[in-house]
Backbone:
């Protein structure tokens, strides 16, 4: 495929960069819903490292053009994102909808990032994550076609599709419905802001990646998702915010960066939603294995984390867990 892809990319990039040759085209690992390629575009004696992301024609996530538009809005608000060169929802040019952006140097593998951080480095990165989210939430969400999903209803429907549940999940859904806080202002939401979707270099946060779940929602959704157990990658509960620092430190940094006070009770409600969301995802991934749709040791292992998520939900519902 790369033999056909290189000349197609040269055609796509010609209006942007002029006559360009595509070299060193390599498919990268990672990316559950979209495929990523790295390559070098060379023209006028200059080489430019670029990234190509492609999605399925029937992709249910944000379209490539929408993802590009949102990243450009976020960049204008001060968020660190790659510069977009081209994006198209049509499969005509490269075989699938695509987005092309500058490559950003740095590390994405979380355990490697953690090994390279001392206490000061973790504190700096946590502050930068709070500032990046504040910038994203300042961005203008109007006029690009973003949806406004109901997070709780969405995961209720996803669990019902599986046809299986647990008593803990059901109790959590009921408690969340009964205790839902008053809505807060709607903002541009990343949708999957977490360790693993960030590029980190020697200066800290270099870029925010993977915008396919972007939508309009409450800021608590992004803040809470960053703070569930799964995205601590084994770090202790005291480092509940992405394995970098305490949840309270993270929330205070966000308040300072955004100029917006946060309701701690509302955050805790959203943290419970985020934990339930992860539990339903784990059960859904297990079903892909158990049904024979996609037999996979990895999916089966993710399914074993359902019980871990139930423990976290029980802690949250009883008043324990991150404060």
Residues:
């Amino acid at each position: 495929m790369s033999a056909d892809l290189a000349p197609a990319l040269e055609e796509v990039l010609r209006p942007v960069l002029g006559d360009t040759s595509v070299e060193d085209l390599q498919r990268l690992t990672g990316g559950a819903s979209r495929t990523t390629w790295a390559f070098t575009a060379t023209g006028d004696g200059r080489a430019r490292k670029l990234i190509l992301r492609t999605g399925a024609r029937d992709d249910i996530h944000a379209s490539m053009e929408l993802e590009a538009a949102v990243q450009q809005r976020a960049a204008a608000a001060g968020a660190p994102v790659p510069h977009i060169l081209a994006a198209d929802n049509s499969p005509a040019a490269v075989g699938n909808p695509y987005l092309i952006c500058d490559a950003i140097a740095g590390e994405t593998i979380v355990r490697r990032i953690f090994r390279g951080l001392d206490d000061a480095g973790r504190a700096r990165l946590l502050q930068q994550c709070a500032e990046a989210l504040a910038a994203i939430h300042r961005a203008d969400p109007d006029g690009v076609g973003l949806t406004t999903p109901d997070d709780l209803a969405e995961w209720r429907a996803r669990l019902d599709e599986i046809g299986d549940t647990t008593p803990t999940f059901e109790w959590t859904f009921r408690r969340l419905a009964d205790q839902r806080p008053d809505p807060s202002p709607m903002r541009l939401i990343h949708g999957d802001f977490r360790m693993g979707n960030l590029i980190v270099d020697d200066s800290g946060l270099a870029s925010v990646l993977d915008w396919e779940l972007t939508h309009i929602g409450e800021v608590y959704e992004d803040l809470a998702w960053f703070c569930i157990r799964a995205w601590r990658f084994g770090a202790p509960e005291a480092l509940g915010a992405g394995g970098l620092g305490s949840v309270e430190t993270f929330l205070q940094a966000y308040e300072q960066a955004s100029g917006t006070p946060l309701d701690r009770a509302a955050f805790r409600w959203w943290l419970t939603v985020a934990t339930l969301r992860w539990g339903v995802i784990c059960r859904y991934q297990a079903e892909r294995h158990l049904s024979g749709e996609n037999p996979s040791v990895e999916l089966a292992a993710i399914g074993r984390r359902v019980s871990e998520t139930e423990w976290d939900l029980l802690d949250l519902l009883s008043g324990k867990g991150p404060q």
Notes: The domain at 110-317 is CATH 3.90.1200.10 (Aminoglycoside 3'-phosphotransferase; Chain: A, domain 2). The chain has a mean pLDDT of 93. The longest strand covers residues 35-43. The two ends are 50 Å apart (CA to CA).
